[in-house]
Each structure stands twice: as C-alpha cells, then as structure tokens.
C-alpha cells in the first residue's frame, strides 16, 4: 500500500547519490542503473519497488578544484497493486522524506566514505487506477576531490518516512510511518566510475570537501545515537538515544576506575505512541540490554549493560521519552595508553499495559534495535598514565574506600556529644591521612563517601567546634541529591514539541473489504471432505493496527461419507459464524478466529432419511483458528489454514447418540482460499 510512497522516496533519494559525483568543465558521460528493493510496510508487510537512476558523471574532474553541479533524474515504478493499496485507504497524495545510504570511493581516501543523504518526497498524486510512475530529480552540490585517480559511486539501502493524505489533506489510517527499504541481494549497485585528474600545479587549491562531513566528536561521556527498532503493528521505528556517563578522563595504571554509571534517555517517535494508544496502552515497562565495548592496550572487553525500563506513561499523542540507567563494573588497566568506550546495539523487552494494569493485546515483546551506520558511537577516551611497576602501590589507595570502615569511626563523632570524646580526636591522627592530597579526592568518589566527608569537614584544627560541625554532616546528605536525577523524568515535558505530529491524531474509519471464500474441511472421524465453495467474507480493517472484524458466510453444503467404511450416507451441513470472524494482519501474515456453529439438517443412509430437522447442532460453537503464510496480501487475498475440534451434538432425536459416536472430536483440518472481489 504505502509501498508506492516508499518508491517515490527511493527515487528522490537514490538519485541524490549522484551528488557525490563532481563534474569538470568538459562534457559528461551518461550513466544509468536500475535497482530493486524490498520495503516493509504496515499491514501489507514486505513489498517490492524498482528505481531507475539516470545521471551524468564527469569525464574531466580535477583534484583540488570544485566540481560543477550536475542534474539528475530518477524514475520510480510502482505496481498497480501498490496503487490499489493507496486508494484502499483513501490516499489521494503521498509525501514525506527519505534517507539513502551510499558509498563514495574517492581518490585520496583509504576507505570508502559512507554517505547518508536526506531527500524530500514531493507531493505526488495517486492515480485513479493502474500503476504509479514518479519522476523526480534535482541538482547536486559541487564537490572537491583531494587527489587524482578513479572515483566510483555505489547506491545502498533506503529509509523512508512517508505520509499519505486524503484529498482534503487529512491523514489516512496509515498515519505517518517509517519504512526500511533493503536492496535485493545479487545486484550490481554501481552507479558508475569516473576519472579525477591530478591537481593543476598552476591552480590555487581549495580545501578538500565531501558532500557529507565525518561525524563530529562527542563531548566526553556523551553520545546521541539513532537506532532502527522493529515493533509489533507499526513495524520498524527510528529511536534516538542520548547516552551519558561518568566515564573518567584519566586513570593511573593499576588504579580502579570505580563503577561506571550510564544514563540513557530514549526518545520514542509519535508513530509508536499512536500504535500503543490503539491497543489501549497507558504505560510501558520492561528491561533492556545495551552492548558496549571497552578497548585499551592489550584489552578488548565486550560489555552487556542491563538497563531497567521503569513504568512510563504513554501520552495521548506525540513522542515521549523513557529514562533508564545502569552501571558497568570497576576496571583496572594494566598498561598505560588510551582506552575507549563505544556504544553498540541494544535489545529491549517491553510490556505495554492498560490503565487497569493488565497487559494489552501486544503482551510482552522483544525488539532488537540496530544502530544506524555512519555515526560516532564513541562515549569517550580514558588516558592511562603511570608505570605499572611502581604505581601498583597507589591502587591500594582505591582500597581505602574500605576505610569507610574507618568512617564508621567518624560515626563516633556522634559520640563527641560526650564531652569526653574530644579526647578521641587523638584518633584524628588518622585523619592526618587526609593530609594525603589524594584522600580529599576520595570524598568526591562514590556519593557514599558522604560519610567520609565528615572527617573532612571537621578541619580538626577546629576540634573544639567539632560538636557543632557534626550538625554539618547533615549537609553532606545533600550530595545524595544527585540521586535526584530521577527528576529528569520531567524532561518528558519535551513531548510538547511533538505537536507537529498531530496529523497522526485523526482516527480513521475502517476500510471495508469483500472477499470470495472457497475451500474445504476434512471431518477426521468420518474420513470425509466437506466442500466450502461459494462463500464470502465481509471485513472491516483498521489499517493502522492491522486488526479486522468480519462476517463469514458459507452456503449449505452436502457431506458424503461411508458409515463403517461400507454404507453410503450423506448429510446437509450448515456452518454459521457466531459472533463474527476477528483477527489481525501483521507483517503480511493473517491470524483469525471464528466461532462456528455446525448444524445437520438432513441426514440420510442408503438414501433413506434418518433426520430432517433444524435443531440438530453442536452444543457449543467450534473454536476455529486459522492463519496464513508470510505472504498474505489483504489487497488481493491468499490462503488460510487451521485445525479445530468439533463439539458434541444435541437435538438430533433418536440418532443423537449415533452422531456423537461418529462425528465430534479433534484434528479436523480446514483450508480457505480468500480472493478479493
């Protein structure tokens, strides 16, 4: 459905790749490449699209000179089936944006340069029928190359953010959504190659530039990273994670780092909020595991950081933030040099809950979140100094945190209330240890040292006043205020900026779909097949959630079988869908349930009537579950299969016991072919 949207996006973005190619003053060489993609969309699952890129590559680019901007054109071919999907949800236009990955192999660079180019998807009309062809284009920026040689451009995957709209400009049931389009394997994705002439010695060079700058350095202990995460109902979503840490900047060889704390603020997009609201989610909670890597001389240590996801309210609209934190254990470095911590992927197990605290229909699910490439995922570096042969004695100082056992002696300062205790200040001869310049820093270590701060405040020289200063230790409790970082939950207020996502608010009317139903069911105990042809299904599909409700109708059908394997018999069977057929369409797969009452209205043996009645039916409806394969398309149909148990019968007169001895039981199979009218 929205596939066509992605296709338009792909076109505009893919051709933007051409912007990597500079152009000299001479004529340009025309190149063209056609690539196939598979895109994941709500409701309809995976869909295909094709993009043809026509561009002109330079044949006389010169290093250290700006290239001449060139024009490009892309043609996106969208199938009639995808166009039907757009019309199905009432879309008259589609627009949005896309990010396309590509690589530029340029002279003067040791490694290919990964490029992520943003491009708008222009407002495109959805035709009344037939395929949709989108043509887009533009002009690329000038590029300056560092050296002469051969350059080449390859086109990669595409991420699209799409927004189909009705003729009046309002949203369809799809709202706004993100779709990841993966290039089908086995293709030659080379757009083309061209030569860059060596620098002109008579030309004053300009600083080399590239269309995309390398990721900037992160502040020490901080990183902002983008991830792609798959979610039920809404598919892939892009999350932004802000990570901060108390990562030390310097350590000595053999010195313990202390526990390294990590705080993360995850910004959940408005589309995910919409999906949670659709299933009645009022809060979400769970846990996550983040991967990180610590590298240092002679060390490459993977870290798995458990991060609890506290119960977080889901707003009525817009994006929201989830805050979590965790710690990595203390570590000691055996060699001097530079250590670095990098942040990797993460996995989250989440449980959305209703207002009454019960789980939603989504239950508990796990989402594997993949870090988008091309980002600076370094949390910071640690400079390790000192000589491991001499400094190891200093690491014993970190063991002084065990001196908090001595701080238990500072608890004795409470005893200073006893006038005699001031004599104990003889013990402050131990506080002479604070004269060690390093110990004053110890109080700054774990907030626990709020107790050790007691020895520091009693600037023992003022021992006479110590009895009054012990009241000051109540102030050290203020350092515990840093634990108030729970207050950052207030940053959830920034969800107000999500007002721009209001277009996703309007609830949409379900899409009405009609299908022809044909199939058969095997009555296991009779070893007989009952035809289910010429039936129908009228369904109402919520395109945003993938949930549907429907009425299944099946005509009266004749079942022929042999009693005891010998005597020919028959029965006219009426199947009645009690309470409707309900189910979901997710990622191209259908699951559905029907409660079916089975009635026998005419039973004969050897052609002689044994029963002719409307009262012979199952004592309860049969609980029938069916599902499709992974390629079901609600726009065209597909095959559903299932297995069910036939309950016992009643109201069959003198043959009730006979029927119950021959028909009810498990293991009955069902196959239905669903074709859209």
The helix content, as a percent range, equals under 10%
Portion in strands: over 45%
How many helices? The count is: 6
State the separation between the terminal residues, measured CA to CA.
17 Å
Structural class: mainly beta
Largest sheet: 10 strands, mixed
Q: How many strand segments?
A: 33
Poorly predicted residue ranges: 1-27, 205-212, 389-508
Mean of all residue-level pLDDT scores = 74
Q: How would you describe this structure to a colleague?
A:
With 677 residues, this protein is mainly beta. The protein has helices at residues 3-16, 80-88, 270-278, 438-441, 453-456, 656-662; strands spanning 28-41, 45-58, 61-62, 71-78, 93-105, 113-125, 132-139, 149-165, 177-183, 190-197, 222-231, 235-245, 250-252, 260-268, 283-296, 299-313, 320-328, 337-353, 365-371, 378-385, 511-523, 528-531, 535-541, 547-553, 557-563, 567-586, 589-605, 608-612, 617-618, 622-627, 637-646, 649-650, 665-676. The strands form four sheets. Strands 1, 2, 3, 4, 5, 6, 7, 8, 9 and 10 form a ten-stranded mixed β-sheet that branches. Strands 11, 12, 13, 14, 15, 16, 17, 18, 19 and 20 form a ten-stranded mixed β-sheet that branches. It has an eight-stranded antiparallel beta barrel with strand order 21-23-24-26-27-30-31-33. A hairpin with a 4-residue loop joins β21 (511-523) and β22. The protein is globular.
């Amino acid at each position: 459905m929205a596939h066509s949207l992605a296709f338009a996006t792909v076109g505009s973005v893919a051709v933007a790749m051409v912007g990597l190619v500079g152009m000299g003053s001479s004529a340009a060489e025309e190149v063209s490449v056609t690539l196939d993609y598979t895109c994941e969309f709500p409701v309809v699952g995976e869909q295909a699209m094709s993009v043809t890129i026509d561009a002109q590559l330079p044949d006389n680019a010169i290093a250290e000179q700006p290239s001449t901007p060139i024009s490009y054109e892309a043609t996106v071919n969208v199938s009639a089936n995808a166009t039907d999907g757009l019309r199905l949800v009432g879309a008259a236009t589609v627009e949005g944006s896309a990010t396309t990955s590509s690589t530029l192999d340029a002279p003067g660079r040791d490694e290919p340069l990964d490029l992520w180019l943003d491009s708008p998807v222009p407002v495109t009309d959805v035709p009344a029928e037939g395929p949709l062809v989108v043509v887009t284009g533009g002009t690329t920026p000038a590029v300056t190359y560092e050296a002469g040689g051969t350059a080449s451009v390859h086109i990669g995957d595409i991420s699209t953010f799409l927004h189909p709209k009705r003729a009046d400009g309002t949203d369809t049931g799809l709202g706004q959504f993100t779709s990841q389009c993966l290039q089908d394997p086995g293709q030659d994705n080379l757009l083309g190659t061209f030569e860059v002439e060596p620098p002109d010695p008579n030309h004053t060079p300009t600083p080399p530039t590239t269309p995309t700058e390398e990721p900037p350095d992160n502040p020490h202990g901080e990183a902002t990273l983008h991830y792609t995460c798959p979610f039920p109902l809404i598919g892939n979503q892009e999350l932004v994670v802000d990570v901060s840490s108390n990562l030390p900047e310097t350590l000595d060889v053999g010195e313990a780092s202390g526990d390294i704390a990590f705080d993360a603020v995850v910004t959940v997009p408005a589309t995910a909020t919409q999906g949670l609201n659709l299933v009645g989610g009022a809060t979400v909670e769970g846990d996550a595991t983040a991967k990180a890597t610590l590298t240092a001389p002679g060390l490459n240590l993977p870290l798995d950081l458990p991060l609890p996801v506290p119960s977080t309210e889901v707003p009525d609209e817009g994006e929201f933030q989830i805050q979590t934190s965790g710690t990595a254990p203390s570590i000691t470095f055996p060699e001097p040099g530079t250590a670095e911590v990098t942040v990797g992927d993460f996995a989250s197990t989440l449980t959305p809950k209703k207002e009454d605290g019960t789980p939603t229909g989504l239950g508990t699910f796990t989402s594997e979140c993949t870090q988008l490439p091309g980002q600076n995922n370094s949390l910071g570096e640690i400079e390790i100094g000192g000589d491991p042969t001499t400094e190891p004695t200093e690491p014993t100082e970190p063991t002084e945190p065990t001196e908090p056992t001595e701080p238990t002696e500072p608890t004795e300062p409470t005893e200073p209330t006893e006038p005699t205790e001031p004599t104990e200040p003889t013990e402050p001869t131990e506080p002479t240890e604070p004269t060690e310049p390093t110990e004053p820093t110890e109080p700054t270590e774990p907030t626990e040292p709020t107790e050790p701060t007691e020895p520091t405040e009693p600037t023992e020289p003022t021992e006479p006043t110590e009895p009054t200063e012990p009241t000051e230790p109540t102030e050290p409790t203020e350092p515990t205020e840093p634990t108030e970082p729970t207050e950052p939950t207030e940053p959830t207020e920034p969800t107000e900026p999500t007002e721009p996502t209001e277009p996703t608010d309007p609830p949409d009317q379900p899409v009405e779909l009609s299908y022809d139903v044909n199939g058969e069911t095997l009555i296991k105990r009779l070893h007989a097949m009952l035809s289910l042809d010429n039936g129908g299904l009228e369904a109402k599909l919520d395109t945003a959630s993938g949930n549907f409700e429907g009425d299944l109708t099946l005509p009266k059908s004749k079942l022929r079988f042999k009693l005891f394997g010998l005597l020919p018999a028959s029965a006219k069977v009426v199947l009645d869908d009690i309470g409707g057929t309900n189910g979901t369409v997710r990622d191209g797969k259908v699951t559905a349930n029907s409660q079916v009452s089975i009635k026998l209205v005419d039973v004969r043996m050897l052609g002689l009537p044994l029963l002719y009645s409307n009262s012979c039916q199952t004592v309860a409806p049969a609980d029938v579950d069916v599902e499709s394969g992974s390629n079901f398309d609600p726009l065209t149909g597909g095959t559903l299969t299932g297995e069910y148990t036939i309950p016992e019968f009643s109201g069959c007169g003198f043959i009730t016991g006979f029927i119950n001895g021959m028909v009810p039981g498990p293991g009955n199979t069902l196959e239905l072919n669903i074709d859209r009218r």
